Amino acid sequence: MSWFVSSVPLQSSSLRPDPIPWIQETYLASLEMQLLATVVLVVVALFGFGVASRFQDVVRRRSGTQLAEASSVLLLGAVVVGGVYAFSVIWHVTFVLEHTLRTMAIDRWLAAQQLVTGAIVLTAYLAIRFVNRSIDKLSQTRAITRHQSEVAYHVSDVAIVALAAAMILTLWGIDLTNIFIGAGAITAIVALTARETLTAMLAGFILLFSRPFHVGDWIEINETTGIVTDVTIFTTKIQTFDDKHVLVPNDEVTNSQLTNYSQNDQLRIAVDVGIDYDDDPEHARSVIVDAVSDLESIKNAPNPQVVGKRFDDSAIVLECRAWIADPTMRRKHDAQTDVMDAIVAAFDREEIEIPYPQRMHAARNDGFRIEDRRARKGAVSSLED
Known about the structure:
- This protein is of the alpha+beta class.
- Among the domains are: 19-102; 108-174; 266-350, Alpha-Beta Plaits, CATH 3.30.70.100.
- The protein has helices at 2-7, 19-27, 31-63, 65-90, 94-104, 108-140, 146-171, 176-193, 195-210, 250-255, 281-292, 329-350, 373-378, and strands at residues 218-221, 224-231, 235-240, 245-249, 258-260, 266-275, 305-311, 316-325.
- α3 packs antiparallel against α4.
- The chain is elongated, with a radius of gyration of 42 Å.
- The chain starts with a helix and ends in a 7-residue tail after the last helix.
């Protein structure tokens, strides 16, 4: 093996400084010593990986995650390069490294291009990590919504990657004009074939900036009512109150009438009740107000109100209006139930009747007569006369 190494013309003193041949001839001449040195090298490499992990934790606590990851990558790279070189020295194959470097035939300009390209890629990666973590922190502080953070992820990542790609292509002398022309043609074709998808995506960005609702809000779009569970660039996911999950395209959200019941901190509910025409409407209104004013599910401000709504066939219909805080469908149903129970109990105490539909039948003086069948049976028919 020593003869083969020395006979290889690609071997260079740059990879074998003066101490290296002496170490190889003195300590690494036998197979046993080479195996032992390899085992020691593996142990040292594992120890280096552990040191890199601990070093990353220390830097993370002191300087942040981005710098910790960058320093850990550099340290691990140094461990790997040192391990590969030590392995080549142990087994007398440093000529392989020299051959690899010469095969690459790297001149100064090419080496500079490669170094700058690597720096651009590393910078873009660190920038993406930094921006994404910053978006996560803003999302945790509720400065932005989940939908906004998701859109911000995609926009920032695409922007950083596009900028890095343009810089790398320009560095390597690739003309971007043809690329832009081809991208414009492809965009035109995609715009014609996927108009609905692009419209939904554009609507997603509109929802991002207009913020008509947030995840967790109770909204109504056309005939769909429920809680917003997720908002993506293309669709809005709503969980209805009968436990159905409905995906509404964002362009339909922006083009339809939208009601957000969670926009304010209160919601008015209305309960209709009828009283008999013989009862006093003013007294009935005061009884209803007193009955619902002390309910825990009803807000005291604004105060409950009772107004006359209409004259029905069998009753005078009154409308009880009350407000609930932090509106949800469950609170609305509970408040309506409490109001109805309180009104029924109060009307029973005050002996106010809640009528049901009744119909009266009376004969008119100018009506026609109906002969009795029995009289007709006793009469003689003209045919029998």
